[in-house]
Design goal:
The complex is a heterodimer of chains A (about 180) and B (about 350).
Chain A (H helix, E strand, L loop, with lengths): L3 E6 L8 H10 L9 E9 L2 E9 L8 H4 L6 E3 L6 E3 L9 H5 L6 E2 L5 E2 L5 H4 L6 H5 L5 E5 L6 H8 L2 E2 L11 E4 L1
Parallel strand pairs in A: 1-10
Antiparallel strand pairs in A: 1-8, 2-3, 4-5, 6-7, 9-10
Chain B lengths: L1 E5 L16 H28 L10 H20 L18 H27 L1 H6 L1 H12 L1 H27 L12 H23 L10 H10 L9 H30 L3 H11 L4 H24 L8 H23 L9
Classes of the chains: A alpha+beta (about 180), B mainly alpha (about 350).
Chain lengths: ~180, ~350
């Protein structure tokens, strides 16, 4: 059984926001909302600065607080790829999942249900990459099965240094940033 | 220096979480009072069943007030939902890890329970209804005559009241992303605060009871009278009213202790919890916490009620009103400060 994850090379990412635009277009994300976004983190004192640019989205955590708090089961872990998904026809719009996510990855869709990155599961089922991955001009994003040792994502995680976001939250996120 | 910029600008999420407005604090407050009234009403029913209080003061008013407040609370909860037409989805499942799911089921059980508890004593207080619906009067008489049935009803009220009171706190405390909420004492704290607010509300209602007032007749005056009129023509015995004040002193003292434990727990925990502690201690929420919740809502009514019991000052409604203000402030504070609290990025890479 696959367990999808994403590996993003921060040494290649230039923050061009192609991934953001691709996601908005592919998933018809309403204007003013974002399923993925660019975060720029600058550390140090001038002139000794380091900068990390990251394309961020739902981390499809192994230990997902948004799924645990959902009163209807609308937020659930999909069998296919063990990704975290929302069933809009079961969502009552209580916003507990929006509060429960330490990454702020969820929002309330103007139609009332909770919405977020799906890892473009509809594309992945057709054998394609998620929209954000497919358009990246620097090829800094790799999508794949983390349980398959032969996948490119697994190979990168074995050979490169990486970090995840807020590991102290204990959510076991599955979007990894190569440093 | 650490500077973070983001292109994300999702409404209600950025710059900080603001998904819950006035509806949820109101619901948590009202839900807490309902829980408190269920427990106090259950105790009143037990006293009635045991013959300790033949009039069973508060055993009518507690459930009927709780029933009306429950309607208000559930309305607030419904108004908060963003996908309202799908609300039925809650009752298609029971999610064992989601307090909101448990709470929804508790609410749906509490609803008829409170209705039954209120109806038992209603024919006595509202003669018009008893004449028009003799079946209800017969049913009420039969239940009142059976101490076993009364005891069962009392304990069901108490157990579900405790469940409802704790759930309103657990609802928030299971969220790891909000350090201010992610403390296990929140459930008991909300329960005790609900008990104290429930006692305060009963106290206010007891003050409306006047001796020798004839029971109002007719459909409308009788209905209103049933809500504010005592059972019988006398106010509650002094020891009954004093017991309520004594109980409230206990609730307030425990609440103060639990607030202290909450603060100690936050400041000695992770950096994220310590940051949440600072939210209450200084800045935007400090006045509401220290001035309104601690001083006005707990310490002052505690002192006033102590002095009243010691016959140093006359009995007034001031402590009861202050306790209710404090109860609402606790929910308002936790919901609003909690939404601003977030996990602090502790690791510097």
């Amino acid at each position: 059984m696959a367990r999808f994850g994403m590996v993003i090379d921060t040494r290649k990412c230039v923050g061009c926001m192609d991934c953001v635009v691709a996601c908005q277009t592919e998933n018809d994300v309403p204007v003013g909302y974002a399923r993925d976004w660019i975060t720029t983190e600058v550390r140090g004192e001038f002139p000794n600065l380091t900068m990390e640019i990251r394309s961020e989205r739902c981390n499809h955590c192994d230990n997902p607080p948004c799924v645990y708090c959902c009163p209807t089961g609308a937020s659930h872990v999909e069998d296919f790829g063990k990704t975290v998904q929302v069933n809009a026809n079961r969502c009552i719009g209580c916003k507990a999942c929006v509060s429960a996510c330490p990454y702020g990855a969820r929002f309330v869709h103007p139609k009332g249900y909770a919405d977020k990155c799906t890892f473009c599961l509809h594309r992945v089922k057709e054998g394609k990459d998620p929209a954000c991955v497919s358009v990246c001009p620097t090829h800094c994003m790799v999508f794949g099965d983390l349980d398959d040792p032969a996948s490119e994502a697994s190979r990168l995680l074995r050979t490169r240094k990486w970090h995840t976001l807020l590991p102290e939250a204990g959510t076991k996120p599955r979007v990894f940033y190569l440093t | 220096m650490l500077e973070i910029t983001t292109t994300r600008h999702n409404p209600l999420v950025d710059p900080h979480l603001a998904v819950w407005s006035w509806e949820i604090p109101l619901y948590l407050f009202v839900g807490g009072i309902v829980a408190g009234l269920m427990i106090l009403g259950g105790v009143a029913l037990l006293r009635l069943a045991r013959g300790e209080d033949p009039k069973g003061y508060f055993s009518l008013h507690a459930p009927i007030t709780a029933f009306m407040l429950l309607n208000l609370g559930m309305l607030a909860l419904f108004l908060d939902l963003a996908h309202k037409l799908y609300v039925w989805a809650v009752y298609l499942t029971l999610q064992p890890l989601a307090p909101m799911s448990w709470g929804s089921w508790v609410l749906i059980i509490v609803y008829p329970l409170l209705l039954v508890s209120a109806l038992i004593r209603l024919p006595e207080a509202w003669p018009w209804l008893a004449q028009r619906v003799p079946l209800l009067a017969r049913w009420s008489d039969a239940l009142l005559a059976s101490s076993r049935a009364l005891r069962a009803l009392a304990w069901t009220n108490i157990v579900l009241g405790v469940a409802l009171g704790i759930y309103t706190g657990i609802l928030l405390s299971t969220m790891v992303a909000r350090p201010l909420w992610n403390v296990s004492i929140l459930g008991p704290l909300f329960l005790v605060s609900g008990l104290s607010a429930g006692a305060a509300l009963l106290h206010l209602m007891a003050a409306l009871m006047r001796p020798q007032r004839p029971a109002p007749q007719g459909p409308i005056a009788g209905a209103i009278g049933a809500l504010i009129q005592p059972l019988g023509k006398e106010p509650p015995a002094k020891e009954t009213a004093n017991a309520l004040i004594r109980a409230d002193i206990g609730f307030l003292a425990v609440e103060l202790l639990m607030l202290g434990l909450l603060l100690i727990g936050l400041v000695t925990s992770s950096a994220s919890h310590a940051a949440a502690f600072e939210l209450l201690m200084s800045g935007k929420f400090a006045f509401a916490f220290w001035g309104v919740l601690v001083a006005l809502g707990i310490v002052i009514p505690l002192a006033l009620q102590g002095l009243e019991l010691a016959h140093r000052i006359p009995h007034t409604l001031v402590p009861a009103v202050l306790v209710l203000i404090g109860g609402y402030t606790l929910r308002w504070l936790m919901v609003n400060a909690g939404q601003m609290s977030q996990i602090v990025q502790a690791a510097v890479r």
